Amino acid sequence: MPHMAPMWWTVTYMMMVMCMLTMTSMIYFYFIPKGKSNKMGQPTPSSNWKW
């Protein structure tokens, strides 16, 4: 049992990191360009996913 603990911990940690990265990327690429859309002239946030 103790040998399986580090593997499950790394898998859970990687899943948590992926979730955090997805949430931060959604915030950076979806919410922030909406505020800059007035200056950049891009009303659609989907166009910013090409970065």
TrEMBL record:
The keyword Transmembrane helix applies. Keywords: Membrane, Mitochondrion, Transmembrane, Transmembrane helix. It comes from the Eukaryota. This is ATPase subunit 8. The chain crosses the membrane at residues 6-31. The keyword Transmembrane helix applies.
